[in-house]
Amino acid sequence: METLAMHISNGIVNGPVAAVFAAFALAVLTLCVLRGRRDLDDRLAPMAGLVAAFIFAVQMLNFPVFTAGVSGHLLGGALAALLVGPWVGALCVAVVLVVQALVFGDGGVAMLGLNVTNMAVLGTAAAYLLIALLLRVLPRTPAGLGVTAFVSALVSVVVASQGFVLQYWLGGTTDLGGNLAGLAGTMAGVHLLIGIGEGLITATTVVTVAKVRPDLVYALRALKPAASAPVVPVAGGAR
Predict the structure, then answer these.
(1) What is the mean pLDDT of each run of 10 residues along the chain (239 residues)?
(2) Among residues 87, 114, 82, 109, which one has the least CA distance to residue 98?
(3) Looking at residue 172, what is its pLDDT?
(4) Is there a contact between 28 and 121 (Cβ–Cβ < 8 Å)?
(5) In terms of DSSP H, where are the helices of the chain?
(6) What is d(CA 116, CA 122) in angstroms, rounded to the nearest whole number?
(7) Which of 37, 81, 108, 188 has its CA 20 to 30 A from that of 214?
């Protein structure tokens, strides 16, 4: 087992629990394919490719959390949810994880369902729920969009890390030291710091895109502001 292996390595969680989460991840991704087909158009399809490539690059920044094959890194779920929506966004993250596992050996292939559940499903879902809330109450200015991106990215990373804690509680096979509460605290603390970095990257990227081409930001198109929320164009208009 590689000490610095990205994601969850083989042997951290037992086979039955890994199989259950693999089935869950497959079911959710199937739903994402069905729902995502409705969103795909001439704008979203190429943007999805760019988002997947960007996520692949940022996930290469890897930070060891334990010496038993668990690591933390940037996820990209919030960025994907903002730019291409939750359904296509989850697929983008999942494709990156599959390529990393099968081609580069990042994370165990047997643990792929666990990693997809945490990063592609939980991380993206948590991010989009916050995005949907914040964009309805914050002004749609660069500052409002930046705050939305930062907060959703930070929270999504911490939520994804706690998904691993649940999986380890259900079927952990490796001694990571301490009790479950200590494990949860360590994962949350490390990923909170990672989340700050991811939040800054996500906010900078999304605001930059929105200033040039606000029509390419899925969340701005799909989410309607609340009646009381001020609506200020992020840019001068779509080109």
Answers:
(1) 55 93 97 90 87 84 54 80 96 93 82 94 96 94 95 95 92 79 87 88 94 92 69 53
(2) 109
(3) 86
(4) yes
(5) 15-39, 44-58, 77-84, 86-103, 112-115, 124-137, 142-171, 180-212, 218-222
(6) 9
(7) 37
d(CA 43, CA 118) in angstroms, rounded, equals: 28
Tokens coding 118: 């945490």
Is 92 within 8 Å of 55 (Cβ atoms)? yes
- Are 128 and 162 a contacting pair, CB within 8 Å? no
In sequence order, what are the beta bridge partners of 62?
73
Neighbours of 109 (CB within 10 A): 12
* pLDDT for the residue numbered 87: 96
Q: Of 72, 60, 76, which is closest to residue 189 (Cα–Cα)?
A: 72
Give the DSSP per-residue string, 8-58: BPTTSB-HHHHHHHHHHHHHHHHHHHHHHHHH--TTHHHHHHHHHHHHHHH
Q: Which residues pair with 73 in a beta bridge?
A: 62
* 154 backbone dihedrals φ, ψ, rounded to 5°: -60, -50
What residues form DSSP beta bridges with 63? 72
DSSP at 109:
G
Tokens found for residue 210 = 């929105």
Tokens representing residue 127 in the block: 């991010």
β-strand partners of 70: 8
Crossing angle of helices 180-212 and 77-84, in 10° steps, is: 30
Both tokens of 35, joined, read 């729902």
Contact 36, 88 (CB under 8 A): yes
